[in-house]
Amino acid sequence: MDYDTYAVDGAEELGPRVTIREANNVAVDFILRGADLAFANSLRRVILSEIPTIAIDLVEVESNTSVLADEFVCHRLGLIPLNSKDVDDVLYTRDCECDQYCESCSVTLTLHARCTGDDVMKVYARDLVVTGGRVNDQVGNPVITDAKGEGCVIVKLRKGQEIRVKCIAKKGIAKEHAKWMPTAAVGFEYDPHNKLRHLDLWFEEDAKKEWPPTKNADWEDPLQEGEPFNYDAQPDVFYFNVETVGGLPPDVIMQQGIKVLQQKLAAVIQELAGGDERNGDYGDGARSPDGPPPGTAYGADGGYTTPFGVGTGNASAWGGGTTPYGATPYGNSGAGW
């Protein structure tokens, strides 16, 4: 079977390399090589919790005569995946100048259904209708992937029951709430044969039988009998399986994850380096703060006096080498011992 391998431009054999084993519009399975554990795990955590998406955040319930409580329905509405394509065009509410929400920072959806027949009526995600303006024509649409084009079930209604709600979808990340999570699951594994002994496998009789290796073990050589343990070995091959909830395709999730990670690292570097105004002639490197200039109370004429000292030299707060009472503890000459 052929696999596609991608490397960072200019990295040659030293940079990260990605081998895609399987990919579709729902999930991607790939191998990351040439990276350390800290980077691989950082990428995993970012794509789990820090990629911005859009989800229903506010619900105004006008009428709900179903058997489900308002809070239950609102929770189900919040977990319906919405299309997050070009979500960067949407502002965070905290960054918007509006009072609560507007077309620049939100998408408005309405839901109105009433059962008039004798049979149970199912209300689906397809029944959510985008109303009002928005930044583009894609963001905020309910994700419909089933063959019937119905989407997930929101509520069931009997004859005479009704539901009428107004939903406000906003931009956010999964660190704030799980409804903004772009992925359903992120599989992550390294060292499938446990050569590095990072895992202490609990077993009753035979660890090999009770802990069968995963399919990723076929991509690495097993531990040989009597092979010496390498205490300096570090993992450099990582197996990812990213599954999306539907709001963003898996390739976009990975691209956004790398983008967010770059932004976080750039912010750290900027804080460490500081700006040119703070660093002066030192360039972009980090350094300790400037000392007091000559002639101040802390550095008169280049000396190291205390705030109360006068002149140069290492004077105490009361001047000279004396104690607060005007004499040295070991004689007036200050010769000490």
UniProtKB/TrEMBL annotation:
<dbReference type="InterPro" id="IPR036643">
    <property type="entry name" value="RNApol_insert_sf"/>
</dbReference>
<dbReference type="InterPro" id="IPR011263">
    <property type="entry name" value="DNA-dir_RNA_pol_RpoA/D/Rpb3"/>
</dbReference>
<dbReference type="GO" id="GO:0003899">
    <property type="term" value="F:DNA-directed RNA polymerase activity"/>
</dbReference>
<dbReference type="InterPro" id="IPR022842">
    <property type="entry name" value="RNAP_Rpo3/Rpb3/RPAC1"/>
</dbReference>
<comment type="similarity">
    <text>Belongs to the archaeal Rpo3/eukaryotic RPB3 RNA polymerase subunit family.</text>
</comment>
<feature type="region of interest" description="Disordered">
    <location>
        <begin position="275"/>
        <end position="303"/>
    </location>
</feature>
<feature type="domain" description="DNA-directed RNA polymerase RpoA/D/Rpb3-type">
    <location>
        <begin position="27"/>
        <end position="271"/>
    </location>
</feature>
<comment type="subunit">
    <text>Component of the RNA polymerase II (Pol II) complex consisting of 12 subunits.</text>
</comment>
<dbReference type="Pfam" id="PF01000">
    <property type="entry name" value="RNA_pol_A_bac"/>
</dbReference>
<dbReference type="InterPro" id="IPR036603">
    <property type="entry name" value="RBP11-like"/>
</dbReference>
<dbReference type="InterPro" id="IPR011262">
    <property type="entry name" value="DNA-dir_RNA_pol_insert"/>
</dbReference>
<dbReference type="GO" id="GO:0005665">
    <property type="term" value="C:RNA polymerase II, core complex"/>
</dbReference>
<keyword id="KW-0539">Nucleus</keyword>
<protein>
    <recommendedName>
        <fullName>DNA-directed RNA polymerase II subunit RPB3</fullName>
    </recommendedName>
</protein>
<dbReference type="GO" id="GO:0046983">
    <property type="term" value="F:protein dimerization activity"/>
</dbReference>
<dbReference type="Pfam" id="PF01193">
    <property type="entry name" value="RNA_pol_L"/>
</dbReference>
<keyword id="KW-0240">DNA-directed RNA polymerase</keyword>
<dbReference type="InterPro" id="IPR050518">
    <property type="entry name" value="Rpo3/RPB3_RNA_Pol_subunit"/>
</dbReference>
<feature type="region of interest" description="Disordered">
    <location>
        <begin position="317"/>
        <end position="337"/>
    </location>
</feature>
<dbReference type="GO" id="GO:0006366">
    <property type="term" value="P:transcription by RNA polymerase II"/>
</dbReference>
<keyword id="KW-0804">Transcription</keyword>
